[in-house]
Each structure stands twice: as structure tokens, then as C-alpha cells.
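Handout, section B. The chain below has 244 residues.
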Amino acid sequence: HALLAFTLGVKQLIVGVNKMDSTEPPYSEGRFEEIKKEVSSYIKKIGYNPAAVAFVPISGWHGDNMLESSEKMPWFKGWAVERKEGKADGKCLIEALDAILPPSRPTEKPLRLPLQDVYKIGGIGTVPVGRVETGVLKPGMVVVFAPAGLTTEVKSVEMHHEALQEAVPGDNVGFNVKNVSVKELRRGYVAGDSKASPPRGAADFIAQVIVLNHPGQISNGYTPVLDCHTAHIACKFAEIKEKC
């Protein structure tokens, strides 16, 4: 899971060492330190800095160190993390969660909205649905859908049945578009601003690939199916440049 998280760009990590009530003896400091040492070594190899990761001994079943400090682990003096944004410390899991730094929303980047679905709603028309990844979507914008190259105006933007003046990264929205039928759009297309760095299809690209598990051999000419945001499309490894 740690490798998957790092691969997907998750920068911050908390390690909750659960089932402390089931150690031998129960709530064993030695067992916690053993796990902490082992996991620290592993996540360091992946790319995380263990000094910036909170390790919290917990028992989800009994609620120890979840919301408040547990009397059953007097040896645990609390967790502390050091990172370039500053230090943080605490005693329990909820404090570690509160110490997570919220990510900045990339509103200044060009609009990219991969379509999850397209609906035809009576009395309204064609409504593509998806999550804003970067940029800002506003009513009145002229958007282009890649790779089809269709251009149209956004009549309105809604989230949870409420009209929005703008949608920002992280928002799951539906937006009504003019003069485009449901059949012309599909899941996997990407909407962007036609006037500011619109999205385009790519004939090829360079990717860093992490192989978690594979039964055969991967070589030049290998043809996997690629899932990129909501797109699901066959591609080919033209050339393997290097192994890290």
C-alpha cells in the first residue's frame, strides 16, 4: 500500500500500528518499536522520509490512542514529525490526521476535466460529468473536448444540484453544453479551455513505469491497456529506455 500511495503521488503518510491489545504481552513497547523500525526502513526505500511520518500505536477495537491518549501505553510519549513546512507533534491518531497539510489546489494551471460520464437530461440537454483536475471551469467558457476536437459553450455548472459560478480542482461537477449530442462525447475525453492551452491527443509520451507484479516478461512492443484518469485505451511500449 505504501508503494502504491507513493506511486500515485501521495506525499504525506501516517502509520497507525493497530491491534496493540493483541501483542504478547498486550500493549508491548518492544513490539511497537520493532514494527516502527521495520516499516521505517521499508518506506525509506520507497522514497518517504521516516522523520516526516507519524507512527502511532493504536487499538481500533478498544479505541486506544485514537481520539485521546491511552493509559494502557504509558511508555508512548507521543509522535513527532519534522518537515520543511514545520514541526508537529501529538499523542493520538486524530491529532496526526489534523497535522496533515492540505494540498494546494492547482487553479493557476490550464483547465483539465476528464469526463466520467455523459448524460442527456430532459429539458436541459447534454450534461458531461467529471472532476476538475486542474484549472477553473466557469459558465460562459468555450471548452474543447480532446481528442475529438469538439468546441462548445458551457451554459451552466452544477455540483450536488447547486449552480456554481466556478468549479475548482477536486470538484465533481456536471456542466450543460450547447449544440453537442450525447453520442459525440464519451467517458475518457478531456475538457479544457479552448483559449488557454487546450488539451490535445498525444501520439507518444515518456512514462516512468513501476511493475508491482507481472507473470511474464516486459520488452519493446509490449501492449498493455492504459488507464489514465477516466480513459481506458490500448498502447504499446515502443522503447524501454532504462531500468532504474
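Note. The mean pLDDT is 93. Compare this with the example in section A.
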